[in-house]
Amino acid sequence: MDEDRLTNIERAISDFRAAVEERFDAVERRFDGVDQRFDAVDRRLDAVDQRFEAADRRFETVATKVDMDRRFDEMEAQLKVMIESVGGDVRMVAEAHVALEKRVTALERQSR
Fold first, then answer.
1. Which of these, 97, 99, 77, lies nearest to 89 by C-alpha position?
2. Within a 10 A sphere around the Cβ of 32, how many other Cβ atoms?
3. Tens digit of pLDDT for each residue in 8-54?
4. Predicted model pTM
5. CA-to-CA distance for 93 and 56, rounded, in angstroms?
6. Where does residue 85 fall: left (phi above 0), alpha (psi -120 to 50 degrees), or beta otherwise?
7. pLDDT at residue 13 in the model
8. Which helix (H) or strand (E) holds 36?
9. Which among 23, 26, 94, 99 would be 20 to 30 A from 85, CA to CA?
10. What b/e string do you get for 60-86 counting C-beta neighbours within 10 Å, with b at 16 or more?
11. Sign of the C-alpha dihedral computed for residues 87, 90, 96 and 97 taken in this order
């Protein structure tokens, strides 16, 4: 009878061990599923991060483009002022040239 009892205890321990291992295996499978879900979430977050980085690069380009447009407008305004200033100088030189040419012509007539 002691042998039957011992066999029953061994069988109960073996069954209990198998049940515990089965439950641990089930828990491990569930954790694997959770890990897979977290991996999927990580991939999605990486994709979102890449989209934000692309948007940041676009905004940097836009900011640079706006800045370049502003600088171009400033340069254009400065060039217009310089051209107008030079235009006045050119007119003065042209008038002085005409006056000088008249004097030279007058002097040439006197010396003949």
1. 97
2. 10
3. 999 999 999 999 999 999 999 999 999 999 999 999 999 999 999 99
4. 0.45
5. 54
6. alpha
7. 95
8. helix 2-111
9. 99
10. eeeeeeeeeeeeeeeeeeeeeeeeeee
11. negative
